[in-house]
Amino acid sequence: MKKYFVKAFLGLCALGTSTVAFAQEAAQPAVEGGLYQALKVKFIEGGADFMSSIAIVLILGLAFCLERIIYLNLAEINTSKFLKSLEDALDKGDVEGAKAIARDTRGPIASIAYQGLMRLDQGIDVVEKSIISYGGVQGGLLEKNLSWVTLFIAMAPSLGFLGTVVGMVMAFDKIEQVGDISPTVVAGGMKVALITTIGGLIVALILQVFYNYLLSKVEALLNQMEDASVSLVDMALKYSLKFKK
Predict the structure, then answer these.
(1) Which residue positions does the secretion signal occupy (predicted)?
(2) How many Å apart are CA 245 and CA 242, to the nearest integer?
(3) CA 135 to CA 222: how far, in whole Å?
(4) Angle between the 124-142 and 48-75 helix axes, to the nearest 10 degrees?
(5) Cα–Cα distance between 205 and 208 in angstroms, integer?
(6) 8-state DSSP, 28
(7) Cβ atoms of residues 222 and 141 within 8 Å
């Protein structure tokens, strides 16, 4: 699992470096030609401070999304095959073998199963309580860091709207200085206002797509955990009736 997080960290470092380089190049005079140059122009026109803040929000949001995607993908297992292997071991009375299978399998379902198997000799009620309690712990781990993603989703348009207000203030300052309300005077401030708003909304939309994807993954895993918990309790009951008469 560590190698996946190392790769993700290196990828995020590269993304951050690219963004910093883009911001530095945007501060230089832009020449016409291509989408990249067009983005640089809009970055400059939107104001380096606000646009850089929005870009940082995007990077941080994607970092948490990537971490969650890796974690949730690693948490997925073939539940049916795993439960079948546990059931076969318990049918033979091989509790230690079942524990070894659960211990050597990654993911929250295997962790819940291991906790239940550890208390198999204490009675079915203890096993059921253990599975329910540890299931809540694993559910919390699945939802970890999602609150940060929602924070960045809210921050991105907020920064854009802040840029809008600042742009409007700039426009009114120019009107006051020049004493004229012609479109040429107002255009500069209005451009800052609109570009920062667009940038913030685009970032929020990108992060929202990832957030909804993560929610669907978490919900799917929670449903699998609930189904597996019922099966584990049934296995424990069956074992108790068969070997503890």
Answers:
(1) 1-23
(2) 7
(3) 9
(4) 150
(5) 5
(6) S
(7) no
- Residue in the structure block whose two tokens are 């929020």: 204
Rounded to two decimals, what is the model's pTM? Answer: 0.75
Joined tokens for residue 147: 């609150």
Per-residue pLDDT of 30-60, as tens digits, reads 444 466 566 666 666 656 677 888 889 999 9
Write the pLDDT tens digit of every residue in 120-161.
888 888 888 999 899 999 999 999 889 999 999 999 999 888
Residue range 220-243, pLDDT digits in tens: 999 999 999 999 988 888 888 776
What is the spatial distance between Cα 163 and Cα 219, in angstroms, rounded to a whole number?
36
What is the arithmetic mean of pLDDT over 25-33?
45
Tokens of 178: 């020049």
Task: Name every residue whose Cβ is closer than 8 Å to that of residue 193 and which is 6 or more positions away in sequence.
Answer: 163, 164, 165, 166, 167, 168, 171
Amino acid identity of residue 153, one-letter, is I
The dihedral over CA atoms of 73, 75, 81, 85, expressed in degrees to the nearest 10, equals 150
Q: How many residues does the structure list for the chain?
A: 245
Six token digits for residue 156: 């991105």
Residue corresponding to tokens 């920064």: 159
